[in-house]
Amino acid sequence: MVPSAEASAREVLSRRVSELGLVRASELAGRAGPGRAGPGRAVRAAASHADPAPRGPQPERDPEPEPEPARDPERALLPVSGPLTGLLPWGGLRRGSTVSVHGSTALLLALVAEASRAGSWCALVGLPGVGLAAAGEAGLDLARTALVPRPGPRPASVVAALVDGLDVVVLGGASAWRAGDRQRLAARVRQKGAVLVPVGAWPGADVELHATGGTWSGLLGDGAGRLRSRRVHLRCAARGRARDHREDVLLPGPDGRVAGVAGSEGAIAELPADLPARTG
């Protein structure tokens, strides 16, 4: 029996996506989440840009391509968790912006979790150490999370393709990007209305979030018990804002997600040396 053109195309796509390393987090976690059909063309474009293998005969075009995620022009802000709302200059993640994160993987996940739960598609690129357990505890919808742990020899092309179709792209290894590539990617983010979240220094970022300190609680005086929450000091610097905003949060809180600390507005305490960020 001769396979149909559609079946052949899907087999080729599956093989190329496998070579790239692009996979939904829910597939790794054994979940089949509901919602939109998937990143569609963005996944195919990322696979084609990053695939270094020689190209064979081209299959026929899939007659029913998966749709890209819808972007509502009226929805200029993607939501963030309540304790982070007051830190950001717009009260959320503004489409077309670049928000760099320093010092904490937990902060990185907490920043994008609310948008993921609200239906936005997210991609974690160049972060092979981020664990699915930590992502799930932070609140990300794993059914709407694409993983590209190693974007291959042409990361700029891969990330640009993802920006075309997804809402939020988290980017590891930001310090290795050249100035020209950073500028071109930032311009594409503004044009497409996505949100770029580089990890580490990113000159020209609209917002910079820094996490310092780390005081864990939950243990009793004799060392018995369980670590339940960690108090972290956050600082946010933003373009056009006269001064940095500072606040203490629980990261993670007792339920594994970010939580507020009463009376922490503007607190600038000398906190102990930072503990390694949890990655799952």
Describe the SSE topology.
Blueprint: H1 5-20, E1 23-24, H2 25-29, H3 41-50, E2 77-78, H4 82-85, E3 93-94, E4 99-102, H5 105-117, E5 122-125, H6 132-138, E6 145-148, H7 155-165, E7 168-171, H8 179-192, E8 195-198, E9 207-219, E10 225-238, E11 245-250, E12 259-260
Helix pairs in contact: 1-3, 3-7, 7-8
Structure, described:
It is built from eight helices and twelve strands. The protein has 280 residues and is an alpha/beta fold. The protein has a five-stranded mixed beta sheet with strand order 1-6-5-7-8, sandwiched between helices. It has a five-stranded mixed beta sheet with strand order 4-9-10-11-12. A two-stranded antiparallel sheet has the order 2-3. Helix 1 packs across helix 3, helix 3 packs antiparallel against helix 7 and helix 7 runs parallel beside helix 8. The longest helix is centred in the N-terminal third of the chain and has 16 residues. The termini are far apart.
The chain-level structural class is alpha/beta
Average of the residue pLDDT scores: 75
Tell me the strand percentage band: 15-25%
Number of helices: 8
Q: Spell out the helices and strands N to C.
A: HEHHEHEEHEHEHEHEEEEE
How widely separated are the two ends? 46 Å
Unreliable stretches, pLDDT < 50, 5 or more residues? Answer: 30-37, 63-70, 266-280
The oligomeric state of the chains shown is single chain
Query: Level of helix content?
Result: 25-40%
Taking the sheet with the most strands, its summary is: 5 strands, mixed
Strand arrangement, largest sheet?
Answer: 1-6-5-7-8
Q: Indicate the radius of gyration in whole angstroms.
A: 20 Å
How many DSSP E strands? 12
